[in-house]
Design goal:
Length: 622
């Protein structure tokens, strides 16, 4: 993507313009007309970022040089009024075509998007960061939107056969949604039935880790920087407070490219990506509520607990998260001192005395015991007619005429055909995704789990702990219940990058990750930790799961046509938010199979980061 910025900017804005994506020509805005028109024709930018609309002659010159591409203008305008512009939870990309009088054919291709100032108090750097983000989103929509519309417009909308590969929480909820829309659904999963008592190591991410998942508005957050500044420490070993869990000798060019992609995302684009992800959390919040109302049987007996307590070891981080919560929701939430937290949650009294946290907030959200929840959803899907094929790995897409996928191939040699396919394989789909736009985007990130007894039942809500600078910086503590009704605390935390191979786990680094999680558990629940260690529960309860991560921190939603005229949809790479975003992902899949667009199809397009960095004249596959 190339943005032409045509006017002077304050010194504070100049760092945003570093890199090949912005061409700054500050004299052009003061001399619009022939001079700006010649520069538009010469450089053929994807977006013009300006304070004045181009005249007809400028648009004509730009359009003649740009071929058939839309001419995208982001117009910096007057203040938006008190409070400034507010983002919605589910933005829809609708190009605002505007034809200028006398502009000729090029004027019909002009797309003008306003980026008003939030007011005189808004720092210029913030305004231009928003303007650049608007430019990137509009560029994305113009490049991807028409291609997707063509693909979706030809989809048969009647009830169809759909094969879903992968039966984690995202695809299970997707399948249930499709069943209720009248589709014929079958699942293929390499692991055993999640309702069985097979060894935890035989399952994928949803069933293989601890029996706990959490929903809050800030799940699946962006991961672009380390506490000390700079990119996340993917290749620094966990034992040295890094995120490297892999055997470094087994990493190769694919891993080097992946970490480079993460490091090269500019701050303004990282914030924009994070805003998009958090917007879908807001959309999921509504959909979770609807699901609980429409299908209450899914939430019976699955350890549902309302409300999340967030605690922080650092006052500045606490205050920043308070501001973030205010920016995301109008719902009230309570800010608590460490004293009040200790009084309200006796299980944290010892941690309070030790100074482990400075305060916290109680926010909307919920937790479930995900292993039970998977069983409930699978039961509901079977009642609705779904067919499950457990222990059936799918190895490859079978190409048809022209190279488009025509079927899936199982490891046992069976070829399976359907009208549509939905692939959601977590971190385990590298071979299956070869040849797709999503290939190489999803790597593994290990999270570790352990369980403590909760004899006193002194924790009213499930808990999210933020320990600034700690190896296990972010931990979830979920109040769970055993088969006999006893209460437990299930602790999950840690970041351990495996690279492209989810099985590339260095035992030494895994042990260091467990040690970091145990340090959090012992610091916040010393009595329960000691009891778990003495009884052997601590050792027995150790688990890990491999979460699917992307370098951009954006999940993936790929839409491709099959040889038979159906759709191949790929979803995943949700970082720490697969459970949180499962309902809105299901909605996006259902929309595609109706032949309708959904904002996620564009926002999570697998080529989004590639298009941003691609040469402006390069052929950019959608």
């Amino acid at each position: 993507m190339l943005v032409l910025l045509d006017h002077p900017v304050p010194t504070s804005v100049e760092p945003l313009l570093n890199g090949a994506h912005v061409l700054h020509r500050p004299a052009l805005g003061a001399r619009p007309g022939a001079l700006r028109g010649r520069e538009l024709a010469r450089t053929r930018p994807d977006v013009l970022l300006t304070r004045s609309l181009p005249a007809a002659a400028e648009t004509a010159a730009w359009g003649a040089a740009a071929g058939e591409r839309p001419l995208v203008v982001v117009l910096l305008g007057r203040a938006a009024g008190p409070g400034g512009p507010r983002r919605s939870a589910a933005r829809v990309h609708r190009p605002s075509a505007r034809r200028l009088p006398g502009a000729g054919p090029a004027g019909s291709r002009l797309r003008v998007t306003a980026c008003p100032s939030a007011g005189a108090a808004e720092p210029p750097a913030d305004l231009y960061a928003r303007a650049l983000a608007t430019a990137e989103r509009r560029f994305l929509a113009e490049r991807v939107g028409p291609v997707l519309a063509g693909r979706l417009g030809a989809v048969r909308q009647e009830a169809a056969s759909v094969v879903l590969v992968g039966a984690g929480v995202v695809n299970l909820l997707t399948g249930l949604r499709l069943l209720r829309a009248g589709h014929r659904v079958s699942f293929y999963d390499s692991g055993p039935d999640p309702r069985s008592d097979a060894p935890w190591t035989s399952f994928g991410c949803s069933r293989g880790g601890g029996d706990a998942r959490m929903f809050t508005l800030t799940e699946a957050d962006g991961y672009f920087g380390s506490p000390g500044g700079g990119p996340p420490p993917f290749t620094q070993p966990v034992k040295d407070q890094g995120w490297g869990l892999a055997d470094l000798a087994r990493l190769g060019p694919a891993e080097a490219a992946w970490t480079e992609d993460n490091a090269r995302v500019p701050d303004w684009l990282a914030r924009s990506f994070t805003e998009d992800v958090l917007g879908y959390n807001l959309a999921s919040d509504r959909l979770w509520r609807e699901l609980r109302h429409d299908a209450p049987e899914l939430f019976h007996g699955v350890g549902l607990r309302e409300g999340i307590l967030r605690v922080y070891s650092d006052q500045d981080v606490l205050e920043a998260h308070v501001e973030r919560q205010h920016s995301l929701t109008d719902r009230r939430f309570e800010i608590l001192s460490a004293d009040r937290i200790s009084a309200r949650h006796p299980a944290l009294a010892a941690a309070h005395r030790a100074g482990a946290f400075v305060g916290g907030i109680e926010v909307n959200g919920f937790t479930v015991q995900v292993h039970r929840f998977l069983g409930a959803v699978a039961d509901a899907a079977e009642r609705a007619g779904a067919v499950f094929h457990w222990g059936r790995p799918v190895d490859a897409l079978v190409p048809g005429e022209g190279g488009a996928p025509d079927a899936i191939s199982c490891r046992d040699g069976e070829t399976v055909r359907a009208d549509h396919y939905v692939l959601s394989t977590g971190a385990y789909g590298e071979a299956l995704l070869r040849g797709t736009a999503s290939a190489g985007l999803i790597h593994g990130m290990v999270g570790a789990w352990l369980t403590l007894p909760d004899h006193g039942r002194g924790l009213r809500n499930s808990l999210k702990i933020t320990r600034s600078g700690h190896t296990a910086a972010d931990a979830n503590v979920t109040v769970t219940e055993g088969p006999d009704g006893r209460s437990f605390l299930t602790v999950g935390s840690g970041y351990g990058w495996t690279g492209a191979d989810p099985d590339n786990v260095d035992p030494t680094q895994l042990e260091a990750l467990y040690a970091a999680v145990e340090d959090t558990a012992s610091s916040f629940f010393p009595d329960a930790f000691d009891a778990a260690r003495r009884s052997g529960l601590l050792e027995r309860s150790r688990r890990y799961c491999v979460r699917p991560w992307t370098a951009s921190s954006l999940p993936v939603f790929e839409t491709a046509r099959t040889a038979g005229g159906g759709l191949l949809l790929i979803t995943g790479g949700h970082n720490t938010g697969g459970f949180a975003q499962a309902p809105v992902t299901a909605e996006a899949v259902a929309s595609a199979l109706r032949g309708e667009s959904h904002p996620m199809h564009i926002d999570y397009h697998p080529n989004r980061l590639r298009m941003f960095y691609g040469q402006k004249d390069a052929r950019l596959p959608a």
